[in-house]
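Example 366.
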Amino acid sequence: MTIHMDDDIKYNPSEFESKMAELWEKENVYRTNDQRPTTNDNKVYCLSMFPYPSGAGLHVGHVRIYTGTDVLARYFRMQGKDVLHPMGWDAFGLPAENAAIKAKKNPMDMVPGNIANFKRQMHMLGLSYDWEKEIATTDPSYYKWTQWLFIQFFKKGLLYKKNTPIHFCPKCKTGLAEEEVLANGTHERCGSVITKKILPQWIFRITTYAERLLEDLKLLDWPKGILEMQRNWIGKKEGVIIKHTVKDLNISIETFSAYPAWLFADTFIVIAPEHPLIKELVKNTQYEKDTNAFIEETKKIPAQQKTEDTFEKKGVFTGRYAMDPFNPGREMPIWIANFALMDFGTGVIRCSAHDVRDFEFATKYK
Ligand SMILES: [Zn+2]
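Predicted structure in complex with zinc ion:
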């Protein structure tokens, strides 16, 4: 059998595309079927990350992501499933704020127009959303629920206020998210060198769930560096805090150790560059100048970089020794290290060559 193809028939989508899109919308063909009882067998929730509606419109990355879930949604619909495939707008926050500052406008004067444009482009792409479920995070009927959630977390004691170091742009006079700090330590918007500032922040007490979260990381087949970052974010609940006196000074420092079994093997101490005690350690000593320079330099490094495998570990000696309560008479040199995190434990860590990071550091500065 031969199949005869007529040369005159050309596939020309522009002739019918807009007509079909119009029809789909009019007939509401992608509306989630909620007329029959939902069972685990017939329901599918297919969700993409909501875009933030910038003035520039969709970019090719959006098209890539949204095509993926659209294919899935269509596949499941063809199998007779009740598919919920919604779209919404992550319209709050820095992207909208930055765009508004640039255009010298109120963000709410720009957001609705941007949303309309995104939606128009999505219609052109033929994406199969149930537009009856559309949400915008700037809509009071939506954000009343994020506020409600905040209150529930607060009532349960899972939310607290704490003074913590954050990235700060001295020129824009604003706190910055990790993502806004470029690798060279400058602010992506204005190019100024960012600093660290200690400000009151709301913090989720995720350490309450640390054990469960850490345990479940074992189930993830993710790159090693990402898993390590997750581990640092989760924070260790388990560990011990040990008090040390500092030789020749009338002060003591508290260290955190996640590996109590190795306490006897620890040989040195590292302290986070933001630690307030450093000033007292080096005051009026020959080490003051070098440590200050080192601290200024590390302030510019975004925290996420510090947990990457390729991050170069650097340190500077404070000239001070802590007395080891586990090995009487043993003096442990105190180093300031660029990888020590202020929000991990007490910001001071007992170290030995057992931890991979400590080991690299110890080998370098032995
Ligand atoms: Zn700035």
